[in-house]
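Recall the central idea of this unit: under ordinary conditions, the amino acid sequence of a chain determines the structure it adopts. In this exercise we apply that idea directly, starting from the sequence alone.
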Amino acid sequence: MQQPIQRISHVQLVYPLADFEQALTQLTAVLGIEDWDRFEVPFGLAVAVSMEAGIEVVAPLTADHPWNDELRRRGAGVWAFVFGVADLDSAVDRASAAGVGLRAPAFDVIANKEGRLPEHFDVLREAPLEVFANLEIRLGQIEPKKKDSGVRS
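Accordingly, the structure predicted from this sequence is:
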């Protein structure tokens, strides 16, 4: 997997928890996705990621999670895409200089070391931008682990 820089890394789909399994089943059946890495993150979300397909499926775990209000307002489905950048802090500064701030603070996706994502990435940080051009874009500094070349010194 190459580091996605200056291109879309992946799309994020959000569903109510009651529809999470059905969404994964349908995506698997229709698109043939079988490499789901499933885990929960500390901020109360169930997550399934297909790194090969570039799809992240997310569901709030509790009825009082703030994303449920947004789900009622926006509905389920595609919520955002993550645009890969080489340096998250510089990209956030560039967006800010262009008049687009953050919806929430930048965060480290693999800081908790849960799931298999830390096996695949050295860095996985995201920053959700304010909605602009009717799009929700997250900037993502995504650095896959280097493959072992098998060469020993």
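The longest strand covers residues 7-14.
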